[in-house]
Write a structure and sequence with these properties.
The structure holds 2 protein chains of 2 kinds.
Chain A lengths: L7 E10 L2 E11 L4 E5 L6 H8 L7 E6 L4 H4 L7 E4 L11 H12 L7 H7 L15 H13 L5 E5 L7 H16 L3 E6 L2 H7 L2 E6 L2 E6 L1 H7 L2 E7 L2 H10 L3 E6 L2 E6 L1 H13 L4 E8 L2 H9 L1 H7 L1
Parallel strand pairs in A: 3-7, 3-8, 5-6, 6-7
Antiparallel strand pairs in A: 1-2, 1-4, 8-9, 10-12, 10-13, 11-12
Helix pairs in contact in A: 4-5
Chain B lengths: L1 H8 L13 H17 L2 H23 L19 H10 L3 H10 L4 H6 L1 H6 L5 H35 L4 E2 L5 E2 L1 H33 L2 H20 L28 H28 L6
Antiparallel strand pairs in B: 1-2
Helix pairs in contact in B: 2-8, 3-5, 3-8, 4-8, 5-8, 5-9, 5-10, 8-9, 8-11, 9-10, 9-11
The chains are: A alpha/beta, B mainly alpha.
Chain lengths: 309, 294
């Protein structure tokens, strides 16, 4: 397998702060051209993971390869071709936006100063470039953060909740920008707690909960694999309940003489036959595909769901 | 696996470093920006402004009042030659003035970047942590040098305007020509600066470890004052030569005829220890530390 050339491969990533395990054996593989969604509720360990990927904090255990290079071994040069930010992008408040970018260009390679105007233009900050960053709005700082990342001409962009705190128009613009960058061939790893955002932008996702990856793959696959939920009305709910239980349906529940459960198509077929043989009439059988939102909540808050049910 | 197939259809990134600045040039660029950052910050002006105001205020006070400090080295020769003033001001200011001015920047230069979150911004560019830290050391040293030179220079200019460019009475008695005294002042600045850099190095260490600018500035000043206090306690004679605070008067050796090199040599190596030990510790902490939200 030729995995060494993947933009990003993390294996068994672990970060422990005393007794707290912030990131618990996380595996991530971001392939070239992916817009990869790193999805999870706040505090699930997304930012801590990104910090490790950017070499800002040391993993307690595990390995990271960025374009085949290990940041722990080769230091900051593992980040060649990589740019991004964790949490909100931060700048020197007493310097102007343009000056901040000049500074960051010099911290890379002074030649890239030539790109400053271009990236300012791209994020629509040319007019405000000479104002101090201290006076920028949150949205402007986010955009300056993108500009600072693009200065490095990255092939992999790591963005930590880039739309957090933006107003609806700002969110739309930021997503448009990410889409445009991805269309230009930049691989993107985008962390988010917003399912709709990930659904809109990403072709692959990893869902993290309490430091652990609970799903990695495409959202479409997730939807397919989770099967359907069903609502069933019969002439004898009491006996139907027992038969349904014996046929291995999941999440069986009853209300108002109606049964609700999750099952794949084969199980449902077998169940209807069994009901017929038991001389129980079916008056209604309705399938409902779960929304992604429900799947997401199920994956990230299983405890809470069980209590509610 | 589908992801691998996709990877092969995209151009592979060049694995060679495109941003191939040598460590020396990389550090030089980082150093330039450390200076520009200092230039854009109020505390720099506060520190360097104080360095210039103090000697002027000192000269004015002597102009408008008779008498003057007689219990301090060269104190009674202040009105004899403008060259005496910078020596006296430096000795006065070694107690807490220059340590505070130094701490203002040394204690802040790493901590403020932790606090503002800008450390993560610059550490995810192409400069190694070692280069970033080296630039911070150099910028702190530059600022400290500027503070000392400004204080002595402004003091010299103001005092010479008032009391003239005349020979200075040495500590051994004979007078030393004005030009020779100026050379002795330069030597004095060098030794004095080394001792002050010892304080700056401690400030950098605390700044790196505490990540809190105010705490770092205060503890650096406390460090300087504690040295004075220990030196003033009875029964500490044996350790006094090894206190950093005592090195601020090593320049007295320059004002002997002939020059007494013993205290000067002692101050140089001892200040060196006070500089190197905290810097190495700070460097190691900086290289390995987790840069997370503070």
């Amino acid at each position: 397998m030729n995995a060494g050339v993947e933009p990003l491969v993390a294996r068994g990533l672990l970060k422990r702060y005393g007794a707290l395990v912030a990131v618990d054996h996380v595996d991530l593989t971001v392939a070239s051209g992916d817009v990869f969604g790193y999805l999870g509720p706040n505090g699930a360990g997304k930012t801590t993971s990104l910090r490790m990927l950017l070499g800002l904090i040391r993993p307690t255990a595990g390995s990271i390869e960025i374009f085949g290079r290990d940041p722990l071994r080769v230091g900051v040069h593992a980040l060649d071709g990589v740019a991004g930010f964790v949490e909100a992008p931060k700048f020197y408040p007493y310097l102007s936006g343009r000056r901040n970018l000049h500074l960051l260009a010099d911290y890379d390679e002074p030649r890239t100063r030539g790109k400053v105007e271009e990236v300012l233009e791209l994020v629509e900050l040319s007019d405000r470039g000479d104002d101090r960053v201290g006076g920028y709005s949150h949205g402007m700082r986010q955009r300056l953060g993108i500009a600072a990342s693009l200065l490095r001409s990255p092939r992999l962009l790591l963005l930590d909740e880039p739309t957090t705190g933006l107003d609806p128009a700002g969110m739309r613009d930021m997503r448009e920008l990410v889409r445009r960058l991805a269309a230009e061939g930049i691989t993107v790893l985008l962390s988010s707690h917003l399912l709709t955002e990930v659904e809109e932008l990403c072709n692959r996702v990893a869902i993290i909960r309490k430091g652990r990856i609970v799903y990695e793959g495409s959202l479409a696959e997730l939807k397919r694999a989770s099967g359907h939920t069903w609502r069933l009305r019969t002439t004898d709910p009491q006996r139907a309940w027992t038969i349904a239980l014996n046929h291995g349906v999941r999440e069986l529940a009853r209300s108002d003489g109606e049964l609700a459960f999750a099952a794949d198509d084969d199980t449902v077929a077998a169940l209807t036959v069994a009901l017929g043989q038991a001389r129980i009439g079916i008056t209604r059988l309705v399938s409902q595909s779960a929304t992604l939102e429900e799947l997401f909540l199920e994956l990230t808050e299983p405890g809470e769901r069980a209590e509610a049910a | 696996m589908s992801t691998v197939e996709r990877a092969e259809t995209y151009p592979l990134p060049a694995l060679r470093r495109r941003t191939a600045l040598s460590p020396v040039r990389g550090t030089a660029f980082a150093y330039k920006w450390e200076l520009l950052k200092l230039r854009a910050q109020k505390r720099t002006y506060l520190g360097l402004g104080a360095s210039m105001i103090v000697p002027v205020a000192f000269v004015l006070a002597l102009v408008f009042r008779s008498g003057g400090p007689t219990d301090i080295t060269l104190g009674k020769y202040l009105r004899q030659s403008g060259l005496a003033t910078p020596f006296v001001v430096l000795e006065f200011m070694s107690i807490w003035g220059l340590p505070l001015i130094t701490a203002l920047v040394a204690g802040d230069i790493v901590a403020s970047e932790s606090h503002n979150g800008t450390l993560k911004t610059i550490l995810t560019r192409s400069r190694e942590r070692g280069e970033v830290f080296a630039a911070k050391i150099m910028a702190t040293a530059t600022y400290t040098l500027a503070a000392v030179v400004l204080m002595a220079g402004v003091g010299l200019a103001a005092a010479t305007a008032e009391w003239g460019w005349k020979p200075l009475t040495s500590l051994s008695g004979p007078k030393v020509s004005a030009l020779h005294s100026l050379l002795l002042l330069l030597g004095t600045l060098g030794v004095y600066l080394l001792a002050l850099l010892g304080i700056a190095a401690f400030g950098l260490l605390v700044s790196t470890v505490t990540r809190n600018s105010a705490a770092a500035v205060v503890s650096t000043l406390m460090f300087a004052l504690l040295m004075q206090l220990i030196g003033a306690l009875p029964g500490t004679q044996s350790i006094r030569p090894y206190l950093l605070s005592n090195q601020f008067t090593a320049w007295h050796g320059f004002l002997r005829v002939p020059v007494d090199w013993a205290p000067i040599g002692h101050a140089i190596w001892l200040s060196g220890v006070y500089i190197v030990v905290p810097l190495v510790a700070a460097y190691l902490v900086f290289l390995r530390r987790d840069v997370a939200g503070d």
